[in-house]
Amino acid sequence: MSSSFAVGSRTVSPLVVSSYEAAREVRNVFNAVLGAQATVAVAFPAGLRAGTLVAVFTAQADALTLDSMLAGTAVITYADSDVPAVGMTFLADQSIRVYPADESVTLDGEEVLFWYVEFGYQEVVV
Questions:
Q1: Which CATH number do you get for residue 91?
Q2: Contact criterion met (CB below 8 Å) for 100 and 112
Q3: Rounded distance, CA 101 to CA 2, Å?
Q4: Is residue 79 within 8 Å of 85, Cβ to Cβ?
Q5: pTM exceeding 0.85
Q6: What is the pLDDT of residues 91-114, one digit of tens each?
Q7: What is the pLDDT of residue 53?
Q8: What domain count does the chain have?
Q9: Mean pLDDT of the chain
Q10: Are the C-beta atoms of 100 and 60 separated by less than 8 Å?
């Protein structure tokens, strides 16, 4: 899976996005008709996605780069070549958490400590 986060020409690619959660607010309106057993429905498009993502990095510097992007005011572009439908433009929402894994692992014969960036997001239209 090839994922990336970009702000302008600044791009960072995690090893993997280990968690993707999205929800949309449904905006349809339903009104009961007084004196009848009927409901009038007015359909509206659902809202934009909001949720959480967890990106995993093999280098602390890359995790801190994403943290810096998320903490800023610029809109971030998320792209995934394997699952293009999850791509979006967004701003960070609620909280940003950067933390190391509990233990290091051996990757290609080298000890690696994974770094996680967990954050809330709100999709935006640019």
A1: 2.40.30
A2: no
A3: 21
A4: no
A5: yes
A6: 999 999 999 999 998 888 889 999
A7: 97
A8: 1
A9: 95
A10: yes
Question: Mind listing the pLDDT tens digit for each residue in 49-99?
Answer: 999 999 999 999 999 999 999 999 999 999 999 999 999 999 999 999 999
**CA-to-CA distance for 54 and 64, rounded, in angstroms?**
13
Amino acid at 83: V
Element (H, E) at 42: strand 39-42
Say if strands 16-23 and 50-57 run parallel, antiparallel, or are unpaired.
Answer: antiparallel
Listed residue (40, 39, 57) closest to 98, CA to CA: 57
Q: What are the two backbone dihedrals, phi and then psi, of residue 108, each rounded to the nearest 5 degrees?
A: 55, 40
Task: For residue 121, count CB atoms less than 10 angstroms from its CB and return exposed for 0-12, middle for 13-18, buried for 19 or more.
Answer: buried
Positive/negative CA dihedral, 105, 101, 18, 6: negative
Count the residues in the chain.
Answer: 126
Instruction: For residue 37, give its domain range.
Output: 3-123
